[in-house]
Design a protein that fits this description.
2 domains, five-stranded mixed sheet, elongated, 232 residues, 5 strands
């Protein structure tokens, strides 16, 4: 535990004691908490933000994730009461990251759920390309594979909901966002099929993804209100 974390822990214990029914004990505890806060430059926002934390998962793109992947991150975040932001990769060959921000074990479990489902989604996508799309041009292959992946994600929502145990502490998450991520812009995912009138065989790609997504699995083996996704 860092020195700052130890100080925050002491302050939180003092603040907890300040709720004591013993008037003198409560007053002394509150006075001690304020003294520590002033000595170390710690604000009320810092105390509240300390209840939340973040966990990051590798994305499939550097700066402009596909619509299906964005949908998956959003659904996972919603299921576990986490805020979700996308952080661009810093170097030309570095992938971006999905950041899940929540309280308790929620960010870690959201990271696990996203990573497992993202891996399964990519594997199913590759199998569909080999089976149905390998004769298509590259751009057409990618666009139709996106339809498959979107169908897959839509189908897997029930699996995510069944796995989740949503413990939302919105105030702490709000404070964490204000302290650590104050300047965010809206994320615009890449939708290669936006505005197109789909043909029958393209609807078939979506349906195939939906059927495949029903086989997605999450295993229980590790120990909010949904918000719009943001870009860091």
């Amino acid at each position: 535990m860092s020195d700052n974390a130890k100080i925050l822990d002491k302050i939180k214990k003092c603040l907890a004691l300040s709720a004591s029914s013993n008037e003198h004990e409560a007053e002394a505890a509150l006075r001690q908490a304020r003294k520590l806060m002033e000595a170390h430059g710690i604000t009320d926002l810092d105390i509240q933000a300390a209840e939340a934390e973040e966990c990051r998962a590798k994305a499939g793109a550097k700066s402009n994730p596909a619509n299906w992947e964005t949908m998956l991150a959003a659904k996972v975040g919603e299921a576990f009461g986490c805020r979700v932001i996308f952080s661009n990769g810093y170097f030309w060959d570095e992938k971006g990251e999905w950041c899940f921000i929540g309280c308790g074990a929620a960010p870690e479990v959201a990271h696990y759920a996203f990573t497992v489902l993202h891996r399964q989604a990519k594997r199913s996508r590759e199998e569909h390309i080999k089976a149905k799309l390998k004769r298509c041009k590259v751009a057409t292959k990618t666009r139709r594979a996106d339809l498959f992946s979107e169908g897959w994600v839509r189908s897997v929502v029930g699996t995510i909901a069944a796995f989740s145990g949503n413990d939302q502490r919105a105030a702490a998450i709000d404070a964490y966002m204000a302290k650590h991520h104050p300047n965010l812009s809206n994320l615009k995912p890449r939708n290669r099929n936006d505005g197109r009138k789909l043909r029958d065989h393209e609807y078939d790609d979506y349906d195939a993804g939906s059927r495949s997504g029903r086989n997605a699995q999450l295993n229980h083996g590790i120990g909010g209100t949904a918000s719009p996704l943001a870009l860091e």
